Amino acid sequence: MRRTPPRRGRRTLTGTRAVSRTLSLAAAALAVTLGAGCSSGSPSAHGTPSPDDTSAVAACTKLISYWAKETITGGKWAGLDWEQKGLSNQQYEIMDTIVQNARTEQERHGLGSAKKLIDRQSEQRCTEENGATWSSQNWRPPK
């Protein structure tokens, strides 16, 4: 069997030299890729990082605000129980108080004002209670 010589101007790598060269190129590409994603301690070109929307306080605020508004507007799902709404006992108690306050506000100043009150009180109470994630076991109705 006759071997054909490599084309002129083109070098071929065989054996361990080829593997070594391939690994070197792969390592260099990996270093460039990883280096591009690292932070240098300065703000990124995309601006400041977004706040942590998955914190217990943020989740509590969103849940209570949503369900309280559904309750005062008679939304389709307003009649679900606390478990179906994804609320803890503590969150349900907070929501119940906020709904009572919002109904009073709605009678005096209208729906828009009641919704603002809901947002404000939900954020305040959830922050005070650090997300109000108290256990949902042995549920009892709010006072």
Major sheet: none
Percentage of residues in helical conformation: 55-70%
Average pLDDT value?
74
Provide the low-confidence segments as ranges. 22-50
| Separation of the first and last Cα atoms | 94 Å
Query: What's the alpha carbon Rg, rounded to whole Å?
Result: 30 Å
**In what range is the share of β-strand residues?**
under 5%
Overall strand count: 0
Number of helices: 4
Helix/strand/pairing category = mainly alpha
The H/E string reads: HHHH
Shape: elongated
Signal peptide: 1-31
Biased composition (Basic and acidic residues): 104-128
Protein name: Lipoprotein
Biased composition (Polar residues): 130-143
Task: Characterise the protein shown here.
It is elongated and about 100 Å long. With 143 residues, it is mainly alpha-helical. Residues 22-50 have low confidence and may be disordered. The protein has helices spanning 15-37, 56-73, 89-109, 111-128. Helix 2 packs across helix 3 and helix 2 runs antiparallel to helix 4. The chain has a domain at 56-76 and 86-128. Residues 104-143 are annotated as: Disordered.
